[in-house]
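Hello,

I think I submitted the iron/sulfur cluster job twice by accident. Can you confirm which output corresponds to this input? Input:
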Amino acid sequence: MSKTVVIDPVTRIEGHAKISVFLDDAGEVSNARFHVVEFRGFEKFCEGRPMWEMSGITARICGICPVSHLLASAKTGDKIQAVKVPVAGEKLRRMMNLGQITQSHALSFFHLSSPDFLLGWDSNPATRNVFGLMAADPDLARSGIRLRQFGQKVIELLGAKKIHPAWAVPGGVRSPLSEEGRTWIRERLPESFATINTALGLFKRLLDQFGTEVDVFGKFPSLFMGLVGKDGVWEHYGGHIRFTDSEGKIVADNLSEDDYQEFLGEAVESWSYLKFPYYKPLGYPDGIYRVGPLARLNICSKMGVEAADRELLEFRNRAGGVATSSFYYHYARLIEIVAALEYIEQLVNDPDIVSPRTRATAGINQLEGIGVSEAPRGTLFHHYQVDENGLIKKVNLIIATGQNNLAMNKTVTQIAQHYIHGNEIPEGMLNRVEAGIRAFDPCLSCSTHAAGQMPLHIELVGADGTVLDEVWRD
Amino acid sequence: MDKVKLATVWLGGCSGCHMSFLDLDELLFELAAHAEVVYSPVGCDLKTYPEGVDVVLVEGAVANEENLELIHKVRERSKVLVSFGDCAVTANVPAMRNMLKGADPVLKRCYLELGDVTPQLPKEEGIVPPLLDRVLPVHEVVPVDIFLPGCPPSADRIWAAVEPMLKGEKPRMEGRSMIKFG
Ligand code: SF4
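Support: Only one job matched these inputs. Its output is below.
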């Protein structure tokens, strides 16, 4: 008899979610769904607010990557004011985003995912967490914590707060980096490089043992999307949008965020608060694409900085060209930290970074604007319409994690198909389904502009729709 | 002395308060020496809220039926409940939708007007929890013992509040450094 399994809630990812697994009559997995169960409604309740408040409000979508919203919102404001941000302003914004990429990726790797790699997928759930890691390998845990701290501190030195700094504004940023801040960053960089090199060495050794995970944690062809700079160089702030396929062929290039509605659609399903963006020319759901670290490494020609470029070469060799396994998200994240540190090192030695000319001012000169930034988890779009006074009339937000929704569902299905045969849910399978999701580092606060707790609840549903078995893990 | 049983819970918020908790950084080692984290979306894989929790930090406002159910369970099973951050204390940004009547306008905008194929409202029973008509601060639903405001409260403030509780003492929530909003 066919049935459904529900995992509720999923932990160590940032947000609320559940997973259902559907079995067919033969007891084999026919399908699996990743449900997101929170929703806050920013797109509606921002109406009527002054455009200048939007970066402060939308930063509250997500406490993990508030800087992405801050920047996408400020860039939307740049367009509505029709101003060009001064050179120093752009460099400072870039620096903050690099700090954020560092802290967010360090959180994903050290605090949230490495307990699976280092303590084991099947280890005791009571200690399979950052505190367990602190007990088992205090040196690694401490250096990981300090690497995240470095990224958070870069944000704080620029914006006066680690989380939700009110700093990037339409036209630029409020203030430059202080000389003391500059010194602090310079002094802490060598330790940060050492930590990421250790982590990369460790992960590469683990990768050799994780053949199964590489093969079943979401390995499938899809499109990849993200920003690239001039000559296709890795980008996180400006540039243009590129789509490539799983052979590495460029499918679309030089796209502007201004035209996003021409190439991105958003589908809705009754069983999730997370929408399903897709690449319009291929339709729904065939227009499945992935964003984030894996996509950015697959679409770019090079990283543009030395050490990260060496790592990118090795990454592509190990993956056999384009990395199609979602397990490689972890690997890609570590390489992006290397790149972020190298770019921070360049910027901290740039005289513009302490220049007081950080902001252009203007009134409302256009009634619509679309801004884009690369959040740690992928491309983020803000789209506002305003009236003559700059009061918001309409908002649309397309968030990184949402764009991986189709891919996360496919990953969960693939993992379930590998581990579930018959009516039993094998021990250890729950953790792997969660770990498959965790590879995407989904930020559900962002994606539904919501947030929450994630216990684990799997529901096994029969072909006739009856729930035959449920498992709550505790 | 036995370790303090500490939990953290996440309702309708942005996770920023939890991130600020992780900004304790190396103080997390000290925390772990005096406390056992028994339930937390960022620090523990156990899926059911346990009995006998000494201190719980609750981030976020009560925004949907699942939050409502969880907060009652959390209250029953915990000695000291801390309203953690502005969303828990005042309902903050999530409550901006309270200016509209009920949850329908926000849902319709997002899923009917901004969805371009298959527009519909997510409503699968037992899977997506219905939104409450009004987003509520935690103390409107259950009694709260300590208010720890901030959006988010800084790691310094969190430590100043949590450290005394590790010794079974009540923190002094006074002065700008401890109770300023934002
Ligand atoms: S209080 Fe602020 S930081 Fe905390 S959850 Fe609410 S919006 Fe996020």
